[in-house]
Design goal:
By secondary structure, this protein is an alpha/beta fold. The chain is about 40% helix and about 20% strand.
Length: about 270
Amino acid sequence: MIKGIIFIAIFLGVGFLYIKYLEKKSVFFPAKEIEFTPAAIGLSFEDVYLNTADNIQINGWFISQEEAKYTILFLHGNGGNIGDRLEKIKMFYEMGVNMFIIDYRGYGNSKGKPHEKGIYKDAKAAYNYLVGKRGINPVDIVFYGESLGGAAAIVLASQVKAGGLILEGTFSSGRDMAKIMYPFMPSFFFPNLFDSLGKIKSVNAPKLFIHSRDDEVVPFRLGKKLYNAASSPKELIEIEGPHNNVFLDSKEKYISSIKRFIEQVSKKEL
């Protein structure tokens, strides 16, 4: 009996430590070297450095357009860095909006190491920069969260005012993703990290959900679960293509959906 209890305790302890190890190794995939800047696609940009609430210096690019009303705060996914998002940067630029894209701590030229609470602080620092330093009206800022970046965008949108929230390929929670990635592990092993499902209920801004039925990384059903938990106004756009290239495979529908959403946000302000 005692041996059995000891065995279970050891099993649970090892399992917990293994899960913590997997969290660190399977959530963030930062790349330090920035191979290309917006100049590579003919765009002028400002190289911005700012400090977070916990005094970590992060880096981002601000790309402005004359007479642009809206600014996209671009919070990217868990891999690479801002230099890997040039195709999307160009796509947004051609929509006629300003754009501010940041690297989370530990990514690109940003200092520190990435972790869940840290990327929330990074997103908040970027927002404060736009509102405080650049004097942009909060209702003229639209948050765009790509995959993991969607979790940061949701937390930010639940805390501050914004014109709208766009989520692409975003999951419902870290626990839901862990169950898919490690189905052999009991669900009680997984802490409830990246609880977007709980936080989305506090977001009052208009919301656009974009998710591919072919998504091989974040299953469509998790995106739908997140959408169902959100309050109105909201819209779900179903597109096609793999997780990382869906914006290219469904380019026409992708662009038209975002442009229409921004136009609708603008009309609500009138």
